[in-house]
Write a structure and sequence with these properties.
globular, about 200 residues, single chain
Amino acid sequence: MPDTEEDRTAMPTPSVRATDAGPPVTLDVDGGRLISGGAVHARLLVAHDHPAYASSFEMTVAPGFDVGAHVHHNGEEMFYVVDGTLDVLCFEPVSRHGDWRNWTAPDGQSFLRGRPGAFMYVPPGVPHAFANPTATPACLFFQSSVEGGHENYFHELAQLLQETRGHPDHDAVRALEHRYETEQLTAMHPGTPGP
C-alpha cells in the first residue's frame, strides 16, 4: 500500500480500461438481432464477438418446448426468468437416465419450477435443462460464454426446426451439437412454434 502522495501517483495505471471491453451497448425494446424459426424465438442483445463476457439474449420459450438436458464443457451460462413459468435444472444427478424432470442430485435436489425472478447459473460441465410446461410462452434473459457464440447455435437450430417443421433429423441435431461442443443427454422437444 503506498504511504505518501508521491508513492500513490507513481503507481502504475491498470492495463485494462473500459474502452478495452468494447463499445457500450444500448438497445431499445425492439433492438438487437432476431433469431427465429420453429419454436426458437430469441433477440440477440450482445454477440459473442463483442469483447463482453458473453452473448446475451432475451428469449421466448414456446409452450411445450424442452431444450433437453445437456452439458457445455467450455463456457458458462446464466438464466433469469422474466415472464411465465419454466422448469429448470442445474446439477449433476445421481443418474443421467430417463426424463430430466425425474433426476435427483445426491442431496435430494430436483428441478425447480421457476417463475419470474428465478435464476440459474451453470458452470462448465454441469448438466442443465429448461422447459416450458405451460400452454403460454415464457420469457427469459440468458447469457452464454459457450465457444462459437450461442447466437450461431440458435440461428442454426432455428433454421433446422423451420426447415423440418419441428422434426429435425437426429443426425443433423447431433452434428449441430458437435459443432458447438454440446453434449445432449436427453432429447429436445420443439413444442409449438413461437411468434
